[in-house]
Sensor histidine kinase LiaS
Amino acid sequence: MAAFAKTSVEMKRMRCLLLIGCLCLPLLALARPAPAPTVALEPAQQQWLDTHRSLRVGLVLQVPYAQFDRRLQQLYGANVELVNWLAQALRLDLTWRNFADQAALEHALQAGEIDFAPGLTQTPTSLRLWLFSDPYMRVPQLMVGPRTGAMAVDLEKLGPADRVAVRMPSALADYLRSNYGNLNLQGVPNERQALQGVLGGQASYAVLDEAQLSRLSRESEFSDLAVVADIGLPQLLRVGSRRDWPLLADVLERGLQAMPAKELEQLHQRWLQPKYPRLSESAGFWQNLALLFGMLLLCAIATLVWQRRQQRQLERSLLAARETLVERQTREEALRLSQFSIDQSTVGILWVNWDSHVRYANHAAERMLGYAEGELLERPLIDFEPNLQMDRWLQLWRRARTGNGGAEQFESQCLRADGSLLPVDLSLSFLRFRDAEYLVVFLTDVTERRRALAALRESEARLKGIAGNVPGLVFRLERDPAEGDLEFPYISEGSEALVGYSPAAIQHPDMGLRNLVHPQDRADYHRVQDLALANNQDWSWQGRILTRQGEQRWADIKASTRALADGRVVWDGVVWDITQSKRAELALARSQGQLRELSAHLESVREEEKARIAREVHDELGQMLTVLKLEVSMCELAFAELDPGLNERLSSMKRLIAQLFQLVRDVATALRPPILDAGIASAIEWQARRFEARTQIPCLVQVPENLPALSDAKATGLFRILQEALTNVMRHAQAHTVQILLVREDAELRMSVIDDGVGFALDQARPTSFGLVGVRERVLMLGGSMVLDSEPGEGSSLSVAIPLD
């Protein structure tokens, strides 16, 4: 059938070609091109051309310059004929490439895929890419109007009422706008819409090039239009070639110059001349030509009608045969896929007759039961299912055949070929296929499932044993996916020993862990748990719980979150009894608090004792030294002239008394600087100046002007902290500058000591650094906080904040 169809189509194609050849023979004889003349080239050009006969031509597909006939698979058009003439004249071997637009053509040029292209317009931008020849064709830009209108139009005399349609944006529109300011231009997307606008009355005239007019004038829609003017801006078509081959441009230029003017004129008339008459032409020739073509068309139509009728009959036969073939192939493909799917299935499938003999078995069933391919056929089911006696089989057959109870499913153990037992799930389903009836038996190997189930049961038993021996309560908390309520699917037996409630009592919706929490701690427990449940996070809480007997215990509750396969989130947790450790912790905290109070008391007593000793040293010892100095001065006045040696001794005694005075002042200042009575700001400034004098390290101090009055204990404590910080800077920091800041922050007073020394790693600080320990204890005694920040090579910063209240 396919050979017959192919022969018929070939015969029909030969008849059509024969008819067209007979009709067009006279025209072809008239249009036979003259032999191409030889082109005279210079020796260098001829030598280059001999080595470059194979050239690549690029064309932009645009009617009527270049078109592609998909049926004949060939190019045709004005530029195609021009290049063919050049190829014949220069004896070139051409390779054609066509492109959708100018940008694609230029991209191919830059990629080195083409050598020259015809039909290009020279622009400043394109001169950087191409070497252009002289124009070989001038395409006029024409104004078209209704055939019933004016015979000729002067563009200078057109007024605002005469709308002129032109494609925008375009170089033609720019030319009209710059040279004819009186024109009322109307922009349209393309030349077709420009002509349609003239026919529809939206525009008086349309301006387009002669090539596009030649293409559109072939349509009967525009037969009532005529050319009324030439705007004087012809489109100059040139041949562009690669800039790196200047000799190619010279060869193409010589070829174009050798082309006869008559050939170019005929090329222009064949492709660019409009098909309706100009105002200067006679219509009689076209009428006779139209009559001739009409007669030829009637003959061709009659022939085509007869051939079309034969073709339809043949196509209907071919289509019916093709549909039958496709349907058969589809059914066969579906059958092959079904058979492949059944054979490759992991579920064993058996087709069994009413007599319990196997009629079909797939590969999975044979592998499960340990038989070779084909050995299961015609075997009764009792051979590998001992429990399936004939009476039971017939009962299952009748039940499946009548459809009562749906498909039969049960677990069993099949006897394999080697005598071992295979645990399976059996599913029976009734099937009618053609004229026979079968029970389809599906075998599913459940060995791994049973093994996993046994392992799960063992794991659950192990988990319950471990949870039962944990000294606390193990629980699982999850949220109901339907209602969003919390529930405890598991509570360990340790709940009896911990709180006196059974697991069932705690699992009750009205109970839960929240009702075990002490009323005073319940708000904190709710906050911690609700935050964790809202964000699906782990949570931990310590607090008091109440047993069933009302006993108060301390508990540590920890829960970790886990996402299940179905999307639910559960929390597995433990409630530890930490009563003993918590009581010890509280006792230790009370002991530490008492020690801290005792240390604060001792520090206060020590500061008071230092102040008392300083006052006594300053007052009592100072008065005695003053009296002694007066006595020595009196002796010097009375007896110094009597004995020169006595005068020297008295002078030495006065120097010793002065040194003793300075020592008394230093001791009194060290015990308690009197500057503290002037305020903490003055004391800080005084201490900074003493530090500068002792170490020669610049010290910048910034203190506020109006500070609230501090108690003596707080002022003394801040001063001692500053002394300790400056002592550490002097001993260890190797600093170049020190900065002391005292600022008030709301209800706190913050003092910061910053140096630019060598610094140290906080995790490597000595635990027995009693200076820092003393500073920390002083801060805690004052009810404040301390922040120490330091890095090696980055200096250190000590910040202390104490409450003003």
User: Anything to note?
Assistant: The two ends are 111 Å apart (CA to CA).
